[in-house]
Amino acid sequence: MSARFEEIDWRPTPMGDISLRRRRDPATGDDVYEVKLGDEFLMSSLFTAGEIALTRLGLAELPGTELDIVVGGLGLGYTARAALDDPRVRSLIVVDALGEVIDWHRRGLVPLGAGLASDPRCRLVQGDFFAMVGDSRGLDPEEPNRRFHGILLDVDHSPRHVLHPSHAALYRLEGLRTLADRLHPDGVFALWSNDPPDEEFTSVLARVFPEPQSHVVTFDNPLQGGTATNTVYVARNPAAAG
Description:
Elements: E1 5-13, E2 16-24, E3 31-37, E4 40-44, H1 49-60, E5 67-72, H2 78-84, E6 89-96, H3 99-106, H4 113-118, E7 122-126, H5 129-134, E8 148-153, H6 173-180, E9 183-193, H7 199-206, E10 213-220, E11 227-236
Parallel strand pairs: 5-6, 5-8, 6-7, 8-9
Antiparallel strand pairs: 1-2, 2-3, 3-4, 9-11, 10-11
């Protein structure tokens, strides 16, 4: 049985102090893993339904096999794990700004880490996803200007509540157009949000991606009782002309 609480790792980063903690849930006796950046909780293994739904809803819109996928934001790895669980996924790049988070996975300090780090289809890349989208080299450091079948993004709390001011541009018209250029025709962009569906953001999304959808994901909240919700936006790139 684990100790009731353990701080597994703590490190200063340019974005603030980041820590990985493990505590025992008194109700179930299970270990709960949590990531904090400064005083903000970024991720908890208690709440993974939204992250898993991000992948499943996004990939469900993609036909065919041999899919090349990018995940923006590694966290505890649930979005990436769900992608690798889809047998159609040929390759997965997971981009995270914090090398510390990638190191937790490579060292097996989080439950899904060893499986992600050892999967030959998966590459963990340290980088600023938002800057890489706008950079001429794109999202794959080994293959400039590569396009993907799916881009799944789970970094900010929502398009309105970003972790860093530099992220906000991606959620505006020009940022979304640049992101669409990183997708194949008929490719899919899916976005996790902690806020309810945002009509203003959806209308901007629709100017780039025809008929975007917003899915409300409901899950149990054992900390507060009752249920909680996340939103997953799913938007498909226009098909190639002709």
